From TrEMBL:
Gene Ontology cellular-component annotations: cytosol
Protein name, entry field: Pyrrolidone-carboxylate peptidase
Native source organism of the sequence: Neoaquamicrobium microcysteis
One GO BP annotation of this record: proteolysis
Family note: Belongs to the peptidase C15 family.
């Protein structure tokens, strides 16, 4: 698509990015990979959405920043909603804080570890800018379980959350961004009492997307001034 300037505009529908992850050690099935594929094939639509994109990210420290930069330069999202698997959670876990640290990192899909102590230059913590209360209300009204967290973990989930919130990737500067963890997939783990069926997973993701689009429209967001490389 043609490059779009980051000039000031208000009352424009949002460009929304959703990401999920591929498989990783200990998770031969990643529900967020299936989620991204379903949303890509049947994208959410509505008055508050100008464009939508869903992507699956590889669980690799070395490539993640470059992948996010490429997506950002091509799509220039206003809103980025990142999803990941947390085996221990029992619902949609809304992450409130990204931690700019690799202190509790573990090997990625390729067996590699991060080379730096920090995820990127910037503050030690960064808050989610998604309308979390609104998302939680929507999920509860739909009968879907909700959890809250102030620790997105020490793996690639927290890495992506931090990179997105810190605007550390060239091109990826969403004005709304955050992370949502989800449980294992019921279809893959039928005996897991806290696993979630794919229909509920997709329904909940659509609720989160809709809540973000509505909040964007109501706030009359303005984009940041144009920067070099964004014209």
């Amino acid at each position: 698509m043609p490059a779009r300037s980051y000039c000031a505009m208000t009352n424009r529908p949002a460009r929304i990015l959703v990401t999920g992850f591929s498989v990783f050690p200990g998770a031969p099935v990643n529900p967020t990979e299936a989620l991204a594929g379903i949303l890509r094939d049947d994208p959410p639509q509505g008055e508050g959405i100008e464009a939508f994109r869903a992507e699956v990210l590889a669980v690799e420290y070395e490539t993640i920043a470059g992948r996010l930069s490429a997506i950002g330069r091509e799509f220039m999202p206003d809103i980025a909603i990142h999803f990941g698997l947390a085996r221990e959670c029992a619902g949609f876990r809304l992450e409130r804080v990204a931690r700019n640290s690799h202190a509790h990192a573990r090997p990625d899909q390729s067996g590699a570890m991060p080379v730096a102590a920090q995820v990127c230059a910037g503050p030690e913590t960064l808050p989610s800018t998604l309308p979390l209360d609104r998302i939680a209300d929507g999920l509860r009204k739909a009968g879907l379980p909700v959890e809250w967290s102030d620790d997105a973990g020490g793996y690639l989930c927290n890495t992506v959350f931090t990179l997105s919130a810190a605007h550390a990737c060239d091109g990826l500067r969403p004005l709304m961004t955050g992370f949502i963890h989800v449980p294992p997939l019921k279809e893959a783990e039928p005996d897991n009492a806290t696993a979630m069926g794919i229909d509920d997973l997709v329904a909940g993701a659509r609720i989160a997307i809709g809540a973000c689009a509505a909040a964007w429209a109501e706030s009359g967001q303005e984009e940041s001034p144009a920067e070099p490389g964004f014209l």
